[in-house]
Amino acid sequence: MSRFLLFAAIFAFPSVASAEQIYPGYSWSELSAGIYLHSRDDPFAGPVDGNAVVIINDADIFVIDSHINPAAARAVVTKIKSLTRNPVSHIINTHWHDDHTNGNQTFLSAYPDAQIISHPYTLEKLKSEWSAFEDGRRAAYDAVTVERINEAAAAAESAQPDRAISLRIYAGYVEALKPELPDLQLAYPTLAVDGQMEFDRGDRKIVVQWIGDGNTEGDLVVWLLAEKILATGDIVVAPIPYAFDAPMLEWKETLNRLNAFDAELIIPGHGTPQKDTAYIARLASLIDATLEAVKKARADGVAYEDLQKAVSLDAQKTVFTGGDPIALNAWNGYYFGPGVSSAWISLGYPVSEGE
Ligand SMILES: [Zn+2]
Description:
- The protein is an alpha/beta fold.
- The protein has one domain (about 20-275): Metallo-beta-lactamase, Chain A (4-Layer Sandwich).
- Helix content is about 45%, strand content about 15%.
- It has a seven-stranded mixed beta sheet with strand order 1-2-3-4-5-6-7.
- β8 (about 195-200) and β9 (about 205-210) form a beta hairpin.
- α9 packs antiparallel against α10.
- The radius of gyration is 21 Å and the shape is globular.
- The structure holds zinc ion.
- Zinc ion (ZN) binds near residues 99, 234 and 270.
């Protein structure tokens, strides 16, 4: 590169770069005055990552969820600093999963006085599971390269297209997270909410609330009363919900409670904001159908080990995936497989004979 080009590269573009704050695969949108969403462009691409919401108040800032990857969290900090000198005072972890908590430390490094809010269940799960999970991930990622995974994906393409999709998603995780893992630490929540906590910020009221079990047993929602914006965490995920360990019976009740907020905008834990409750209704009917299918399998004498093969949710599968192979991969991996197991356990059926 010539000196002139080097000069041009340094001085011609920085204002554009800092204004756009582009981090690959993520985009910003302003949902309402001072309320920003940083969201994955492709909800199925690896790493699958939660939405982060930035709420800029007169004198401070609240952030809802901190991303799976410190690099994505750093992009949020950079964006905040381009918008305001107000400090982040609170980071809300809607639940304990890594795609909502791994960036906590990044925010705390930039804003050391910030409090991290969660439900006590979230703190308990982070304390008992986070370190072992990330140690396992570090060991697994150390043993692979993105190139090898992509080669395996290419080799699987024709005979095992679904495996090729899974491998490409995995390559996305390794590519984004492997460089971050050596320094990854978790900043644990410091402020517990198991009922309701309200923050008055001038005309804005921020209500952090536990309204029942949803995607986990400690999901918090955030209600912006004046703006009528509701952030649900992974109680609502679009376009394919997650059902890992979900307490299905309670989840349905909690979904119904979301309708009572009369929200004008619902920000899911992943995916596109919803302007009405139609998607919530679809989720509730999906959970109903899952519970009914599992009840019928139990009544027909199906054992837990055979549940995945015995149960069909084909009508719902078509509604949620439209037959798209990548959406189908997510449906099987994130909803159908874990969902029928979660429904069985939620209904109190035995997972092994003799229980
Ligand atoms: Zn999530």
